[in-house]
Design a protein that fits this description.
The chain has 120 residues and is an all-alpha fold. The chain has a domain of 79 residues. Helix content is 89%, strand content 0%. The protein is rod-shaped, with a radius of gyration of 28 Å.
Length: 120
């Protein structure tokens, strides 16, 4: 009877060690995935910021150019503002195709990178 009790205690202790190891592995995996997602998000935000600054400077230049051609700087800025508004409306109407789906795919790739694929 004592031998069986020792075996059960050993089994329980190994089960606890296994569960602790799996929990540690899960924590590390979660930390790695979180770091990957944050890295991707920060990179995308920085790229968007640089693109926004570039676009702003280009729009100011185009507005000044159009304003010089029309001899009215305010009219040049109004024309460029109208074009930006139209572009913004088009972007809003097609946001799923150009923003939501690519961002979701990017995050999914970051979350499930280096995971083994199940084969049938």
């Amino acid at each position: 009877m004592s031998d069986e009790l020792n075996k059960i205690e050993e089994l329980v202790s190994r089960l606890k060690a296994y569960l602790n190891t799996r929990l540690s592995q899960l924590k590390l995996s979660t930390a790695e995935k979180t770091a990957n997602v944050l890295t991707v998000l920060i990179a995308v935000l920085l790229a968007a910021l640089v693109f926004f600054l570039f676009l702003t400077i280009v729009c100011i230049g185009i507005a000044l150019l159009i304003g010089t051609w029309l001899n009215s700087l305010w009219l040049g800025f109004m024309i460029v503002s109208g074009l930006i508004l139209l572009l913004g409306l088009w972007g809003w109407l097609s946001r799923d195709k150009w923003l939501r789906i690519p961002i979701m795919n990017l995050l999914i790739r970051a979350l499930f990178k280096d995971e083994p694929h199940e084969k049938d």
